[in-house]
Amino acid sequence: MKLLILDAGHCLSLALAREANRRGDTELVIEEGVSLSPRRLAQLAPDAVVIPPLVEPSSADPSTVMAHAEAVEASLESCQVAGVPLVWCVSDQLYEDGGETPIDEHMIPEPRDENLRRLVKTGNRIRAGLPRHLIVRLGPLFALEGGGAWLNELIDQLMAGETVRAAEDVIVCPTSVDSVALALVGMLQQLGCGADAWGAYHLAGTEPVSIYTFASVVRTQLATRLEGMGCAVTLGELKALNHHHDQPLRRVLNCRRVLDAFGVHQKPWRLELGRMLDTWCQAYHSQEVS
User: pTM (2 decimals)?
Assistant: First the structure.
C-alpha cells in the first residue's frame, strides 16, 4: 500500500513515517504542503491521500483556517479526478459546545464560530463529493516532535521554569499520535483489501481528563523520572484556568464505531504518555552525561 501524506512537518505525518518504517507493507510519500494538484497526484499514484488536522482551529487565525480549508478542498478535487481515496483528520474542537455524553460519529458538528463552520463546510464537501473517504475526528494530539505536538511544548515550558496555564474545566481525551498512525494504517490496509467501511470515525485516547489534569500528570511524571536519574531541575508551576463557570465543557468522543468496523481499540493515554516521557528523559540524560 502506498500512502501520500501531506503537511510534512506535522506531528502526525512524522508518526506515520515512523509506523511505515516499522512495516514492510506500507510505502509512504510525504509532501511539504497541504494542497495537491491533479498532475502531482497522477505522478505519485498513491492508494490514498492523508491530510493531518489543523492544530487548535478554534484559536487559529481566520486566514490560517481559510488556507487550510481551501487546500483540503483543492486536494479533494484532485482526488475526485484521479479516483483516489482521501483521509482528512480534523480536531475535536469542531464540537464547540461538547456534549454531556460521548459524542457519536453521526453527530455533525454545528459550531457558532465562523472558523469552525468553515471546516465543517469542507467536511460536507468531502462527504458529498467523494464516496471513498475517511473523516477522522481526533482528540487533542500529543507527541515529542512535529507541528502541534503539545507534549514537547509542555515539557519545554516546564523545563524552562515557566508557568503553564491550563483549563481546569475543559474535559478531553488526549490522544497519542503514534496510536493514531497505527490505527490509520490498519484501517487503510483493511479498506484496501475490500472492506466497505468508508465514512466518519472518532479516534481518541481513553480516560477523559481536564487539560489541567493532563498537564499535571506530565509535570509529576517528568519530575519523578528526572529525580530518579539524579537530574536537579526545578520545573515550572501550573496555573488552573476556568472558562466555563456554569459547568465543565466535555469534549469526549465515542470511538465505538472504529472498534466495530476495524477492530481498533483506543489506547490509554497514560501509558502512551509514560512511554514518551521515558524516551524524552533517556535522551535528556544522555545529553547531560555527554
Answer: 0.95
SS3 at position 94: helix
What cell numbers appear for 72 in the block? 483540503
Q: What whole-number distance in Å separates Cα of residue 20 and Cα of residue 48?
A: 14
Residue type, 9: G
Is the distance from CB of 185 to CB of 48 less than 8 angstroms?
Answer: no
Which DSSP helix (H) or strand (E) runs through 115? helix 114-129
User: What would the grid cell of residue 36 be?
Assistant: 495537491
Question: How would you class 66 by CB atoms within 10 Å of its CB: exposed for 0-12, middle for 13-18, buried for 19 or more?
Answer: middle
The per-residue pLDDT for range 72-104, each reduced to its tens digit, is 999 999 999 999 999 999 999 999 999 999 999
Q: How confident is the model at residue 288 (pLDDT cuts 50, 70, 90)?
A: confident
Look at the block and give the residue holding cell 481528563. 209
Q: One-letter amino acid identity for 14? A: L
Taking the alpha carbons at both ends of the chain, their separation in whole angstroms is 41
CB 116 within 8 A of CB 69: no
Q: How far is CA 274 from CA 9, 54, 175, 209, 279, in A?
A: 24, 25, 13, 16, 9
DSSP assignment letter at 91: E
Contact present, 135 and 76 (Cβ < 8 Å): no
Coil vs helix vs strand at 75: helix
Instruction: Give the pairing of strands 209-210 and 141-142.
Output: unpaired
The DSSP H or E segment spanning 30 is strand 27-30
Residue 218 contacts residue 277 (beta carbons within 8 Å): yes
Tell which residue, 151, 125, 124, 135, has the closest CA to residue 276: 151
